[in-house]
Amino acid sequence: MADKEKKDKITEKQSIPQTKVKFEVYGEEMIEKEVKSSGNSGRIYLPPNWVGHTVKIIKVE
């Protein structure tokens, strides 16, 4: 990754407000889990019956 791209990503992350916002979401089921490390990313395992369905992930802390 070029230096300019790295700087752009850092600037982009720093410009995100660090205040909490309220989301109102309607759905059928909710699971609260902790994201686990997986290489250079994070991972959450969900029930197999959720495969093929749309989910929304909200970072709460």
Give an overview of the whole structure.
- With 61 residues, the chain is an alpha+beta fold.
- The protein has a domain at 32-61.
- 20% of the residues lie in helices and 10% in strands.
Task: Give the helix/strand layout.
Blueprint: H1 3-14, E1 36-38, E2 41-43
Antiparallel strand pairs: 1-2
Low-confidence stretches: none
Q: DSSP helix count?
A: 1
Task: Choose one word for the global shape.
Answer: extended
Structural class category: alpha+beta
Q: What fraction strand? A: 5-15%
- Based on CA atoms alone, the radius of gyration comes out at 16 Å
SSE order, one letter for each helix or strand: HEE
Overall pLDDT score: 84
What about the largest sheet?
Answer: 2 strands, antiparallel
Total strands: the figure is 2
Q: What is the terminal-to-terminal distance?
A: 29 Å
Looking across the biggest beta sheet, what order are the strands in? 1-2
- Portion of residues in helices? 10-25%
Give the tags.
1 helix, two-stranded antiparallel sheet, single chain
